[in-house]
Amino acid sequence: MGTLTGKTAIVTGASALRGIGRATAIRLARDGADIVVTDIDGASASPDGLPAKMSLLDELAAEISQGPSRAIAVRLDVTRQADVQDCVAKTVSEFGGIDILVNNAGSLAGSQNFLSTTPEQWECSFDVNLLGPMMMAQAVIPEMRKAGGGRIINIGSTGSLGAEPGFGAYTAMKHGLAGLSKTIAAEFGVDGILCNTVCPGYIATDMHLAANQRLAAEHNLPLDEIKAQRYAAVALRDAGLPMDVANAVAYLAGPQANYVTGINFPVAGGVPFGI
Ligand code: NAP
């Protein structure tokens, strides 16, 4: 028996092969949780000839279900209230309740040089990085209350704690996400619902690679030079792995974190948080 046996977790944004969401789903399943893996069936569905995202999600659910845990795949755009409600209804119908929510879906879309950022880009970043997690939390909290408690883990960023130039909208929303976590922690601790923000630094995923590529283009520098500059600021001198973040999520979801709520938990190899 694992520490999460008998628990059910929803993980958003879980399809990407090198993503934090996928690693988290696998990690929580390893601890015994049943998993609802979800993702948007977005325009970036098949980059580089990869299988469409929903196939990746189905394969992930099938892979997890080969072990002691069960898993289902649900298409979910976290910015759409109807999708959010549908996902919660499917989870309750399949597993009887919801114990853990990992708000992992996030996007760098709309983040760039501050003076060039349009209101539309700002709103796009808000929808994915802040409105989505808020709607997901509102939808699961009644179920967690019925169960006598639960865990909500929001995947923030070191951008929840400080700022690096060139990521204005993202940084603002990730700061907001840390505030959302603290609000939930303060308001629903009485119901046994714990809520924390995991703050990854540079983690080797497609999103991180895209950010490095954008900075390389903007500064007219080779990609390796951008990576060297960014990693030079990290105490451990390299990017982390998705599983490093997943391990922190598993801790916060499990019994060892029974008295931990409202915190920001950096998984950043000692990256300074900027200003
Ligand atoms: P990723 O591989 O791009 O995974 C994010 C997933 O969220 C993607 O599958 C993405 O789909 C999905 N998504 C985007 N918009 C969505 C929506 N409206 N509804 C549902 N899903 C949506 O990135 P990652 O690096 O694993 O990031 C996971 C989380 O960690 C994010 O919250 C990110 O901000 C945070 N984080 C990452 C790093 C890092 O260095 N990698 C650092 C700090 C924080 P599309 O690909 O179709 O957009």
Write the layout of secondary structure elements.
Elements: E1 8-11, H1 20-30, E2 34-39, H2 53-65, E3 71-75, H3 81-95, E4 100-103, H4 119-147, E5 150-155, H5 168-188, E6 193-200, H6 206-219, H7 223-232, H8 242-253, E7 264-267
Parallel strand pairs: 1-2, 1-4, 2-3, 4-5, 5-6, 6-7
Helix pairs in contact: 1-8, 3-4, 4-5, 6-7
Bound molecules: NADP nicotinamide-adenine-dinucleotide phosphate.
Residues 12-13, 15-16, 19-21, 39-40, 42, 44, 76-79, 104-107, 128, 132, 155, 157, 200, 202-203, 205-208 line the site of NADP nicotinamide-adenine-dinucleotide phosphate (NAP).
Describe this structure in words.
This protein is an alpha/beta fold and 275 residues long. It has one domain: Rossmann fold (3-Layer(aba) Sandwich), CATH 3.40.50.720. The protein has 8 helices and 7 strands, in the order βαβαβαβαβαβαααβ. The longest helix is centred in the middle third of the chain and has 29 residues, at 119-147. The chain is globular. It binds NADP nicotinamide-adenine-dinucleotide phosphate.
